[in-house]
Here is the input.
Amino acid sequence: MAFCAKCGAQVNEGSAFCPACGAATSGTSAASSGAAAAPAPAASSTGMTNNVAGMLCYLVGWITGLIFLLIEPYKNDKFVRFHAFQSIFWDVAFIALCIASSILGGVLGVVSNSLAGLLMLAIWPLLWLAWFGVKILLMVKAYGNQTFKLPFIGDLAAKQAGM
Here is the structure.
């Protein structure tokens, strides 16, 4: 059995061209000539692409954003750094919003005999849904190699990433 010298694919004996890459072959089998068949070149792995890394920055919130700011091949890439910082800032802003709305709901609940507290309780699922929707939007934009900036947070992330 012969192998292509260019791509390493298996070539039928006596064929003039490689069926995989189309390179010209010598027409003689490497096995029949006594030479050992050369193994196919190993594919070198350089990690994931920048768009996948940017998307994954949003997956588990500020945790994955921080991870991508610390691991070697991605901490120097401005695209990944931007998405990592935006993920961290977005989650910190949402946590601050949740704390503020909890305090507001508690104060209004005490003042209005629990009526406003119940209203705030109804607003919480909408806040979480909005947070999740923006997270999905940011993941889709990062996967599409876009630096979609959220208002204020995106500008702050771009400044931190050096863009």
